[in-house]
Amino acid sequence: MKYFLSLLFIITCSNFSSCDNPDEPYYPNHRWYMLGPALQQPDEVYELLIDGQEYGILPDEIGLLKRMYIFSARYNYLSSLPNTFQNLTKLKDVDLGYNQFVEIPKQLYALPELSYLNLEHNSISVLPDGIYSLKAPHLWLSRNRIDSISKDIGDYDSLAWLYLDYNIITTLPESLWKLKKLERLTLDFNPIDSIPDAMGFCTSLRFVSLSATGLGAIPESFWNLTNLDTLHLDDNLLATLSPRINKLYKLKRLSLANNQLTTLPTEIKDLWSLEFLDLRENPIPIEEQKRIKSLMRYGITVLF
Questions:
Q1: Where are the domains of the chain?
Q2: What does pTM read for this prediction?
Q3: Which helix (H) or strand (E) holds 278?
Q4: Residues forming a β-bridge with 74
Q5: Exposure winner among 5, 13, 59, 260, fewest CB in 10 A?
Q6: What does 1-50 look like in DSSP terms, one character per residue?
Q7: DSSP code of residue 53
Q8: Burial (Cβ within 10 Å: 0-12, 13-18, ≥19) of residue 23
Q9: pLDDT at 2 over 60
Q10: How confident is the model at residue 193 (pLDDT cuts 50, 70, 90)?
């Protein structure tokens, strides 16, 4: 009987894209890799993946693919989208990374079901006024040329993931920390220098990466982010950590490599969820390393 149930599970799983997410739609034989043939059978196209095919422009006819829910056109030469793109109202995932966009295409604002939007490695320079009109909770804008963020970001109520690493942002609007659903934020390799006190109000954050931003200190309000499970602060100028770090009781991964730390507060031992601690390339004396190790409970990976 157990063998029969196992076999039934395997057969059933073969009919879904992922048994881990049975609610995700799966359409066998409806994934297309060439635009021309897809346009000849628009009602049969649910996924269109045209990465690296040297497109500089998309035809208006792409608006006929009204059943499509995944579209990827990475590694092309696109700088705009046809107006008919806004007709693709079932789109959930759009990946336009590694193209030549200088702004977020206006057609994307009209997509009511959009969940994941990837515009990494383009030439976008600003998060504009009205950014809240985007519906996508998950937004990738890494490796662009963004130097400013509109205060309208605070009205982007659905935003949960925001990736802004490798841009040229120097200041963050206070309104950013009003986002009640923001869980993941990456700002690595931006010349920010300091964290505003208001960041401590964004208590929904679970994943924060602020590596290589020039940080020399962390405001006390930061330790109010008690839902954090991952924190990256590598390649900065931190010389001390507050004892209030023990407030981050859900923290599992803490990365502090390549700073100016010579010690850690004793309260580090209170991080009961901690699994990984990276302290490489800090001037921590050998005796202090031993003390830190003695504070850690069994099973934690500590790197010096």
A1: 195-304
A2: 0.89
A3: strand 276-278
A4: none
A5: 5
A6: -HHHHHHHHHHHHTTSS-TT-TTS---TT-EES-HHHHHHSGGG-SEEE-
A7: S
A8: exposed
A9: no
A10: confident
